[in-house]
Specification:
The chain is of the alpha/beta class. It has 7 helices and 8 strands, in the order αβββαβαβαββααβα. The strands form 2 sheets. It has a 6-stranded mixed beta sheet.
């Protein structure tokens, strides 16, 4: 896929959620070796494949949370605040098998609708951290976090969302949470 073909370069930012304590993994997930690079570089490569130049790594070593210790929604908030564009594709650093084409599909679906958030759905579940968020949601996310709330799904219930069913196999949505998960995903390369 060429950068020009995607048409995302001037309309979308990409937020990579790199935070978290990685307690089950025992070490920083973003720096884990994967596919000739790291989990982080794997996600950054997706931005390049889509022609997205505004890539925001939220978490340690990147954009700090304004509400530390409040979970992944705080990372989404930090990214929305710093994004150059009005729409942000959000992905976690620990989902390396998710292809760039799925992000393109979600972006195109978001542009066709009126929802404030468009999320990937698969296997009867919706992925609250794989989708497109409107940057203008930053103040609402900030207010939600400032009130002491942390649940992503709780925030999403207060905005218009669209769950877009993915045609991808379940393995594309596998997370790396433990050393065992990492071994399984690495074997799929």
């Amino acid at each position: 896929m060429s950068a020009c073909a995607s048409g995302l370069s001037d309309t979308f930012s990409l937020i990579i959620l790199c935070g978290g304590r990685s307690t089950r993994m025992g070490r920083d997930k973003a720096s884990l070796p994967f596919g000739g690079g790291t989990l982080l570089s794997c996600q950054q490569d997706k931005a390049r494949a889509l022609g997205i130049r505004d890539v925001l790594c939220c978490g340690p070593g990147g954009i700090p949370d304004r509400y530390p210790g409040r979970g992944p929604l705080a990372g989404v908030h930090a990214g929305l605040l710093c994004a150059d564009h009005s729409r942000c594709i959000v992905i976690p650093v620990d989902m390396p098998l998710l292809p760039a084409e799925e992000l393109l599909r979600l972006a195109r679906r978001h542009l066709q609708g009126t929802a404030e958030v468009t999320l990937a759905a698969h296997g009867g579940r919706t992925e609250p951290l794989v989708g497109v968020y409107e940057s203008r949601l930053a103040p609402a996310v900030g207010a939600y976090l400032a009130a002491g709330h942390t649940r992503v799904t709780g925030f999403l219930s207060s905005v218009t969302c669209f769950a877009s069913p993915s045609p991808l196999p379940e393995r594309c949505f596998a997370n790396v949470n433990t050393p065992g998960d990492f071994c399984k995903i690495s074997e799929l390369l």
